[in-house]
Amino acid sequence: MTTDSQPAAVRAHSVVKAFGTGDTKVTVLKGIDLEVYLGELLLLVGESGGGKTTLLSAIAGILDIDEGHIDVLGVPLSTLPPGKRTTFRGQTMGFIYQQFNLLPALTAAENVAVPLLIQRIRRPEALRRARMMLDRVGLVDRTEFVPKNLSGGQQQRVAIARALVNEPRLLVCDEPTAALDGANGQKIMELLREVGRSPDRCVIVVTHDSRIFHFGDRMANLTDGRIVNIERIQQEGTA
Amino acid sequence: MNYVALKMLFGDRAKYLMLLCGLTFAVMLIVQQGSIFWGLMMWSQASITNLNVPIWVTDPGIAQVDEVKPIADTAVDRVRSVDGVEWAVPLYKGLLRARLANGEYHQITLTGLESATLIGRPAEVLEGRFEDILQPDAVVLDQWAVERMGGPTVIKVGTIFELNDKLARVVAIAKTQKSFTNIPVVYTTYERAIRYVPHERRTLSYVLAKAKDAIPVEDVIQRIQTQTGLGAFTAEEFGWKTILWVLKNTGIGINFGTTILLGFIVGMAIAGQTFYLFTVENLRQFGALKAMGASTLTLARMILLQAFTVGLTGYGVGIGLATVFGYLTASGGSLPFVETWQLLLLVLVALLTIASFQPQLVS
Question: Are B17 and B308 in contact (CB under 8 A)?
């Protein structure tokens, strides 16, 4: 449960992003204003091609924006040099993708340890922490399995463990349930919901999946490059 | 992240083996073709390497070792008189026909060595004693002569044949490097050689010489050229002169050179494409790593590590296979195959250069 009185983890102001040049130029984000607060799970919904993934990539600092500015956890991300932005991303953000993007040659524990290895944490320590994180997502008995020997739901849980292992304050999820069946999708969202409830962390989820809308605190509707409305979601058991 | 890079590389064994096979084949192709070419070039200067002397004094207009231009008999003494020359001996080299007891004729290269020293004699004798060449009518054949003139049942120690209606008796079989033309070599003394051949005003083919130890060979060569007006070369220079002549005046330079070049281009294209496909297939994974905070430098190092690891492995296996090929097909010197460190270095540098371009794919 969050309120607008919580500090903003993400502030996007007048964000514009276009691809291509001349006649083929397509403006995907047309002046986005958005705030995401600590302790909340924000759902980013809207029609395909509306700019959801582009906005997510811009917030993560993977894509440069053309106009406007984006602050993440008080850091002006859009003006940071690429190298510092990458380091900042590695230290403060976690990513979850529709296709999991696990490294197929690595075991579950090794996959989860990768963000720690990137932060130059020694391998034994990184693996120890990775196994603890896998325990937290219910996969302690699958630590030495390679992804192809895990089910889709298990792979996504490994991806979540990987996204959480370096204690990120911003968790960015792009269609995390799209490749999963309904039951597994619900479990994954329960896990993300639990994570998002942490008061010093927030979760942004891009999704088309209406079955998981009730897991969000707020839902922003992005259509044709603009946020057309943001609504608070009525939680179960609340009036 | 080296650990992650290597696990990505070795994790999919089928893909890794395909990558390794592509690189191995590329390296083997280049090394095998290049070594055959260079072996052929070595054969073209076999007349020089077989005699193993430091300085060759020739007609000033000489083009290559097998195109003998006789010089005056006095050249030996003139060379000996040059300051810095330790010794100088005459050499006869010319084509002649041998008539065997069975009536067959074979063209041979008659090589006449100075009898006092036998300088220029082959280093290894397979049968008999080379010193017996000093006996009346004695000649020594190389192993290729045995092969070309009828085999060991026809040609052996004790066999008698005719050279220009004069008797020649085989006293030894020596081991030599095969020559480009593969004409059998018959060794005898210089004095006997000029008795075998039809009379000519000039019979001296070359003067073989050596510089005194304390004097640079280049200085002595310069003095010989200046004081005698003759051509003078180190064995290496004369060898290169011969190789360049062969490349320029026969089809080998263009034809085989083109094949070598194509082999190199095809080999490197295979290597480049193999590297490229491997990196491109992993781009999604590298993208995920970058999103997790891996810097471009880290990713570049990972890709370099992968490319260098598989590249060096393929390089080693490729060279090994090419060497085995050379050993199996060219053992005994029957086929040209000479692996040089320069060729191996060139392939290594080319391979690592291509590998070094892979990180640019992720930037």
Answer: no
User: Do B292 and A90 lie within an 8 Å CB cutoff?
Assistant: yes
Rg of the Cα atoms in chain A: 18
pLDDT digits (tens, 9 = 90+) for A162-183: 888 888 889 888 888 877 777 7
The DSSP output letter for B360 is G
| Token pair listed for B190 | 């210089």
- Look at domain A8-232 and name its CATH class: alpha beta
For A89, name the nearest residue in chain B, comparing CA atoms only: B293
Residue B363 DSSP code: -
Cβ-defined contact of B288 to A97 (cutoff 8 Å): yes
B residues 261-320 closer than 8 Å to A (CB): 284-285, 287-296, 298
- State ipTM: 0.77
Chain B residues lying within 8 Å of A123, measured CB to CB: 3
Chain B residue with CA closest to A85: the answer is B293
Give the amino acid at B260. I
In DSSP notation, B101-153 reads TTS-EEEEEEEEE-TTT-TT--SEEEEE-GGGGGSTTEEEEEHHHHHHTT-TT
Q: How far apart are CA A178 and CA A185, in angstroms?
A: 8
> Which has the closest alpha carbon to B234: B48, B58, B47, B55?
B55
Mean pLDDT of B305-334: 86
Give contacts of B296 with chain A, Cβ < 8 Å: 82-83, 86
Q: Are residues B8 and A105, on separate chains, in Cβ contact within 8 Å? A: yes
Mean pLDDT, rounded, of chain A: 85
Q: Which residue of A has its CA nearest to B13?
A: A105
Contact assessment for residue A16 and residue A226, using Cβ atoms and an 8 Å cutoff:
no
d(CA B204, CA B74): 9
Q: Where does chain B have alpha helices with state H? A: 2-11, 13-44, 46-51, 75-80, 143-148, 190-196, 217-228, 235-249, 252-281, 283-291, 296-330, 341-356
The residue of chain A with its CA nearest to that of B291 is A62
Q: Average pLDDT for residues A121-134, to the nearest whole number?
A: 92
- Tell me whether residues B293 and A117 touch, CB distance under 8 A: no
Residues in chain B: 363
For residues B266 and B27, give the distance between their C-alpha atoms in angstroms, rounded to a whole number.
10
- Under the banding of pLDDT at 50, 70 and 90, the label for residue A101 is confident
pLDDT of residue B15: 81
